[in-house]
Structures are given as structure tokens and as C-alpha cells.
Specification:
This protein has 15 helices and 10 strands. The protein starts with 8 loop residues before the first helix and ends with a helix. It is α/β, with parallel strands linked by helices. It has 2 domains: 9-55 and 152-320, 3-Layer(aba) Sandwich (Rossmann fold), CATH 3.40.50; 57-145, Rossmann fold (3-Layer(aba) Sandwich), CATH 3.40.50. α3 packs across α5. The radius of gyration is 18 Å and the shape is globular. The protein has helices spanning 9-19, 32-38, 56-64, 69-74, 83-95, 109-117, 128-133, 135-140, 152-168, 183-195, 211-218, 240-249, 258-272, 278-289, 311-320, and strands at 28-30, 41-46, 76-79, 99-104, 121-125, 144-145, 174-178, 200-206, 253-256, 299-304.
């Protein structure tokens, strides 16, 4: 009988100590206006203020700080069409490690430019799947793969977010977290359930970036074609490990529309003056759908996982109501 895949609280606490000199401890801020709208207590974990503008540096640093000397000499390789690319590039530059990032050609220019700006080599590929196909060849040559989600060290790094939420909000009852490939969800939920099993963790995806919902329905990871404006949720599939964690640790996975994510983005911007990308604002859209589960005594933390949306995209989505 095989043992369950898990991320231990010891691994997450070790990650917190390891990455502390390199990442920001981001704010957790309540919103009286949005709390009143939902009839509960809403707080935003503002990873938009993390270095590189998203949570991804937590996992990237935790992975890269454990590399062997030989791996450091050769370099790291990664696949990403968004925030993971910038995180790996930034961490590599900080640690003096060479980085090569494979990106799909559809990656927004602002992500490409930011990744190059951190000193990484960017290689554009026709698709995410073809980008992933480059990894095995590089690993065989000695490069270290910093996987965007299916790596225990990466997940443990992302789980440090929960440690900060619980420290800042000891009365937290619920956490809502976005799902792309599932690394953030896996780390956050693992930490929550080990620290306090009563905390309920709710996953959220947008339609057109719903790899976890489809995997849960099928009973195994399946490939999806990403069409959502929440581009940083655009993993072509989840992994066996993240699917297992979702099954075991989540209350549910809520599917919201791009339009709902955009409306939530604009509400957060208007009421809190914080600009989140759709991959983060969809947590508020999910909170609205899940509202019957929360009461006046609930304390609900929404993770705004990133804020790397270009002004051009923001204006376009506003003018088109959330369409591509």
C-alpha cells in the first residue's frame, strides 16, 4: 500500500526560515466595505506586494536554496507563462545562478520583458506543452528543474503564506485560494490542516482555466485548453500529487467566470486601492458564491496571489467585460 503524498508542517516551517532573508512578509488587511457587502469578515492576503508581484518567489527560493553545488554551477530551467518565470529569474539572479525559462509564445509581453529584466534567458515555444517537453533534455544535462507546482519544496515555500495568515489572524476560519497547477493550494491547505484542522480551505478556478475541476470530475489529471483571462492560472493540467491534496484537503473547488473575476478585481481596486490580477481577484468572486457558508462570526482570508496585470490588459478587459 502506497503512502499518501503530503507536505509536512515541519517542511513548511523550515521553508519559512530558509526564505526569510529573500522574501517579503506581505500584509493581511481587512475590508470593512466588502465585509459588510458579504455579511462576514473578509481579509485580503496581499501577495501582490511580494517581490516580483506574486507569491511564486516563496517556492522558487525554497527550491533553489536547496540545490547542490553542481546544480548551481550548471543552472536552473523552468516552464512558465507568467509569475513563476519572474520568480525563478529573480531568485536565480539573487543567488547567482543561471536561469533558462521556456515560455509559450502567447505569454504577455510584460511577463516576457520582466523575466528578461531579471537576467534570465527566455526561450519562446509554440505551446506550454512543447515548453514542458524541453525540460527532460535539460535535466539530463544537469540542469535543475524548478517545477511551477508539482515539487514538494516549491509547495512548502508556498505554504509559508498560511503561517503568516494564522499569525496575523489567529481567529481565521476559512481560506480561499486560487488553483492553477495546484502548488499554492497544496502548500496553503497542507499548512492550514496541520496547524488547525478546523480551518476550511476553499479552492477556486476560472472557466477556461479549470484543470483541477476537470481532474476531480475525471478522477485523474486531464489536459485542458486554457482560454481564461486569468492567464497565470493557465496550467495545461494538474499533477497526481496536487490532485490528491485537493481531494483530501479542500472543501470544494468553485468555478467562476472571467466576468465575475473582473468585477471582483474592480471592486477590490475601488474599495481597497489594491490591484490584483484575475487569478487573485477570483477568490472574491468565489467568496460571493460561497457566501451561504460564512456568517458574522466567520473570518475569511482571501489570497490575492498576484498583481501582474498590464495596464493595456486591464483597460481591454474593462472595455470588453472580461473577454479576451
Amino acid at each position: 500500500m502506497t503512502s499518501q503524498f503530503s507536505i509536512s508542517i515541519e517542511d513548511i516551517r523550515a521553508a519559512a526560515e530558509r526564505i526569510r532573508p529573500y522574501v517579503r512578509r506581505t500584509p493581511l488587511a481587512g475590508s470593512a466595505a466588502i465585509s459588510a457587502m458579504l455579511g462576514t469578515n473578509i481579509y485580503f492576503k496581499q501577495e501582490v506586494f511580494q517581490k516580483t508581484g506574486a507569491f511564486k518567489v516563496r517556492g522558487a527560493f525554497n527550491k533553489m536554496l536547496t540545490l547542490t553545488d553542481a546544480e548551481r554551477r550548471i543552472g536552473v530551467v523552468a516552464v512558465s507563462g507568467g509569475n513563476h518565470a519572474q520568480a525563478v529569474a529573480y531568485a536565480a539572479r539573487t543567488l547567482g545562478i543561471r536561469a533558462r525559462i521556456f515560455m509559450p509564445q502567447s505569454t504577455p509581453k510584460n511577463y516576457q520583458e520582466a523575466t528578461r529584466g531579471y537576467g534570465a534567458e527566455v526561450v519562446l515555444m509554440p505551446s506550454v506543452r512543447e515548453a514542458f517537453n524541453q525540460i527532460d533534455k535539460h535535466v539530463a544535462e544537469g540542469w535543475a528543474n524548478v517545477h511551477p507546482f508539482s515539487d514538494p519544496l516549491v509547495m512548502a515555500g508556498q505554504g509559508t503564506i498560511t503561517l503568516e495568515i494564522v499569525e496575523d489572524l489567529p481567529q481565521v476560519t476559512d481560506i480561499i485560494v486560487s488553483i492553477g497547477g495546484g502548488g499554492l493550494m497544496g502548500g496553503v491547505a497542507s499548512a492550514a490542516k496541520e496547524i488547525r484542522p478546523a480551518i476550511k480551505v476553499w479552492g477556486v478556478e476560472t472557466e477556461g482555466a479549470d484543470a483541477m475541476s476537470k481532474a476531480l470530475e475525471a478522477g485523474h489529471p486531464v489536459e485542458v485548453t486554457v482560454t481564461s483571462i486569468a492567464k497565470t492560472l493557465g496550467s495545461p493540467s494538474v499533477s497526481d500529487e496536487t490532485l490528491e491534496l485537493a481531494r483530501r484537503l479542500l472543501q470544494s473547488v468553485t468555478l467562476v467566470t472571467d466576468k465575475e473575476a473582473l468585477e471582483a478585481l474592480e471592486l477590490i481596486l475601488e474599495r481597497t486601492k489594491v490591484l490584483a490580477e484575475p487569478a487573485g481577484s477570483c477568490t472574491l468572486a468565489a467568496a460571493k458564491r460561497l457566501n451561504a457558508h460564512f456568517g458574522p462570526d466567520s473570518h475569511v482570508a482571501l489570497i490575492l496571489c498576484g498583481g501582474n496585470i498590464s495596464l493595456n490588459d486591464l483597460c481591454h478587459y474593462h472595455s470588453t467585460g472580461g473577454s479576451q
